Amino acid sequence: MVREAIPASSKIQGESVGTFTFNFEVGSPDSQRFQAVEALVDTGAIFSRVPASILRELGHEPAGRELFELGDGSIVEWDVSDVPARIDEKVRVTACIWGPDDATAVLGAVTLERFLLMVDPTRQQLVPIKGPFMMAQHGKKYMSAVEQVDRTRLYEPNEAIGLLKEIAYAKFDETVELHIRTGLDTRHAEQQLRGTLVLPHGLGKGQRVLVFAEGEGARLAEQSGADHVGSDDLIKKVEGGWLDFEVALATKELMGKVGRLGRVLGPRGLMPNPRTNTVVEAEDLPKAIRDSKQGRVEFRTDRTNLVHVPLGKISFEQNALYENLSALIDAVVRGKPSGAKGQYIRSLTLTTTMGPGIKLDIPATLSLSAAATV
Predict the structure, then answer these.
(1) Could you tell me the end-to-end alpha-carbon distance of the chain, in angstroms, rounded to an integer?
(2) What is the pLDDT of residues 31-55, one digit of tens each?
(3) Any idea where the domains of the chain sit in the sequence?
């Protein structure tokens, strides 16, 4: 099916051909909440840039600093990190520059490439790349990494992780991701996959945890290291738009009050929910807080029946990434929806923020779970 061009949000009057604005979404490190951003699309922009205030609000931290050469030949140094982006319901992780708070966001070619999109400068639209011969050219380091991956074979999990670490070339600590293509049809409720798990070695970044509790629950939450604890005062603060946290937990007795925050927290994936173990009894708060800070991730199918999950950082030891992958595969296999038909898992691809994908051998990977089925 040929996808239609995505029109620009608006055009910049007086700007050169190939420059227009486009709305896309920037996500938190765990891809559970997103914020809309109006960005400038320019045919000369290579990397995306987002105001630092937006990235901080979503819970990001700079992964490093890089030198960039501007069009006038001057050299500047900017913070960079890998950031989830969403366009047309698809989520991809892309390298992103931290821009000044008052600067216009920019949507660059590297990000568009992740979505198989390119700029049509004449019509001022984003259009799908229709074939392999229209792909944008990659840099020498990326092509060198591609040459080390045998595209004709499927890799054993541990071998793939070792290769991924060997070919990593970015100067910042990239995120390792697993992309799963399922045989599910998420138009049917009984075929939707969703779950949570705590990765044995975390994600490489601590999470700020907010707890809605009072009385004994509030005392336990504070003792367990929650970053923000409260009830009515905290609910009012969040209603006013304050979102300086990555995980929200609540005791069951407070959900009657917390429920009215659905309009604020729901779209950002922060609303406490019993199905994701974020609504608990007061005595279970210490474990819930500990799990959240250690690297709990949520996985679910998107509208294209794909699952995208971060596994940690490329700087992790190989065995740590292997154990994180094993835990995730076990959770995905055990979470197989009751209405699933045919082949449940159709492909598994391991990659990093800037690197090429490495296809995994499905039986070998699923065997990491005791409940393995293809």
Answers:
(1) 28
(2) 889 999 999 887 667 889 999 999 9
(3) 6-134, 140-193+301-366, 209-295
